[in-house]
Every structure is written in C-alpha cells, then in structure tokens.
Amino acid sequence: MDASLKRITQTPIVLEPNRVWRFYDGGKMIDRLKGLANPKDSLYPEEWVGSCVQASNPGVHFRKGEGLAVIGTGVPEPIPLKSLIEQFPEEMLGAKHVKTHGSNPALLVKLLDAAIRLIIHAHPSKAFARTHLNDCFGKTEAWFVLETRPEVEDPYVLIAFKDEVSRPRYKEMMLMNNTEEMMRLMHRVPVKAGDVVYVKAGVPHAIGEGIFMVELQEPSDYSIILEQTCPAYTFRQDECYLGLDPDTTLSVIDHRVYSPEEVRRELVIKPKVVRREGESAEVELLGYDTTECFSGHRLEVKKTLSDATQDRGSILIVLDGEGKLVHNHGEIPLKRGVELFLPAAVGNHEFEARSELTIFKALPAQA
Ligand SMILES: [Zn+2]
What we know:
- The chain has helices at 3-8, 28-33, 81-87, 89-93, 95-101, 126-133, 167-175, 179-184, 237-240, 246-250, 260-267; strands at residues 13-14, 19-20, 46-49, 70-71, 79-80, 108-114, 121-122, 141-148, 156-161, 186-190, 196-199, 205-207, 211-217, 224-225, 229-230, 233-234, 272-277, 280-286, 295-301, 304-308, 314-327, 330-335, 339-342, 348-363.
- With 367 residues, the protein is an alpha+beta fold.
- β21 (314-327) and β22 (330-335) form a beta hairpin.
- The two termini are 27 Å apart.
C-alpha cells in the first residue's frame, strides 16, 4: 500500500476537468463556470464530477475510460479516483457506506448544460437492473437547476405522463417517431434557477433547451431511448433498449398518470434550510426523505461555515464566490468551478469566504 496515496485520503482532493462526449450540443455554461476563454457549445455538454462510472456512449462513440474521474493534484502521477477508492474504501467512503455499498461510491454527479432539448428517455429501476442487467444500481436521478439561458424565453422540462397511454400505443408512437404526440403526453414543467426536480426510475423525461444544472444519479449509464432521432445521432433499435428485448425493457416505463398537483407535490422538491451559522447556511435541496439514492445540499458561506464529513465521502462543486477550505492538514483555495472529492477521513473542516461562496454538496446513497 502506498503511504503517499493514503495521505491524500486525509485531505480534500481536487478533481481534474472531466468532460464527456454525448449525442447533443451544449456545455457553454460549463466553460463559463470554469472561467475558460471563449465558452462554446460542443458535443461535450456534460462534466462528470468525481465519477467512477464508465460512459456507455452508443456505437463508434464508445471510448474505454470515458467518464472516469482522474486525480492529478497531490499525487506522483495521475490516477483514476476509482482506483484510489478501491485501495482505501473506508478512508474515502466511510465504514458504514462500505458495509452497505462496498467500494462503489453509490453516486454519479454531473454538470449538464443542454443547448437543445434532449430526447425523451427513461432509466431502469434497481429491481429491473438486478433482474436483467446484473447490476445493483438503476438510475433514479434529480435535477438542480443552476441557470437557464437568457435567450430561452420559457425554460421547461418534460416529465411523467399526464394522460393515459397503453404500452402498445406508446410503442407505436416511438416506432413512428411521433415526437409531437409523445411530448403532448407529458407534463411540461416551467423551471428556473434554484428549482429541484426528482426523476424516479421509470418516469419518462426530457430536459428542455437552455438549462444548466447539477444532476445527481445512481451510479450507472443506463438509458432507455424513447425518441430515437436527435440532431447529432440516430439510435439503432438495438441501442435503445439496453441490449434487451424491447418489450421487456419498455415494461419498466412508468405509465402512471400524474395530475399537475401530483407533479408539484411528488416531483418538484422544496429546498429547506437545515442549519445556520451566523449569516451562513446549509440548505437541503433534496434529502433522503425523497429518495435513498442520493442527497443534494447547497452551502451558502457569507463569512465562515464549519462542516464535518460524518464518516461519508461527498463531492463539492464551487458554484460561486471565492475563499478557502481549511482542513486538519492544510487548506485548499476555492473559486467558481473548483470540484473536490471530500473523503470521509477528512472529518471536521471549515469554509472561509473572501467573497460569498455558494457550494453544491452531493452525498451518496444512504448507508
Ligand atoms: Zn435521464
């Protein structure tokens, strides 16, 4: 076991940029968050933050290793975060987590910036993944809207069915590529910065154009493609259904009809302040009372805010401001766009703001 590697599990770990190819255009807002020169849209519209998940892009776009986060600071040579976690699971993830989830971080965090409307799709549940994919994770997800593009007048997301549709009828629409009718079947929910949307596995959904968000997901890249044609790619039939028989895969789509009231109550989550310290606060954006799959918090640091890892790993993204994170072995400068993996072994630490810090904190599946 490498002692210098073990040492870095006692400190916050700076993550290298980790953009991932996808079949849609976007990413300008990520460039902007990171302070890159000439922010622009491309087919790299997502940043997978602290990811230990291989991206499963279709066909010729599959690239081994894509999606896996790399550590390049404080180590003799760059190493994948996944391999550090596998060597030191308890230091990185905490003893309780390891008992429940092994060395799987049980979380996937993304910055996602869609320039165009994304295709309608859905994700498998844990039970489906266990039975058909030999995996213990499905892909429940949640969206935390950071910004919408000013030129988009009515930013929205599409989620859940608002009308009844039989499975054979829906399949027919898919095969006919009847996008308009498929969109009409779904709730169109207006969104703005600060909104939180919970996307249960199985629920059909699509992100509208011009939305920049943090996305939390179960750690997998399983998508069931319901709308096969998008500007940058047309999916083959066998790429749409997770490699399984279409009817088997489509059986996981949630055909429940939601009323607008049910969407507001069950799928749009109300953030709540969970603690205050002076003028600073920690806001729970989505907690384990909604899903055991993950939790998202926002730290608002006016001057200082103390925190503790509480024997679990977490991922931090600095969304705004400037300052530092002071821990037991030193300090790390913070500014917009900095991404950190915070090992469980870090323990108590404190944020200090030079200009007001806003930090997204992502926590893994409940242990
Ligand atoms: Zn999705």
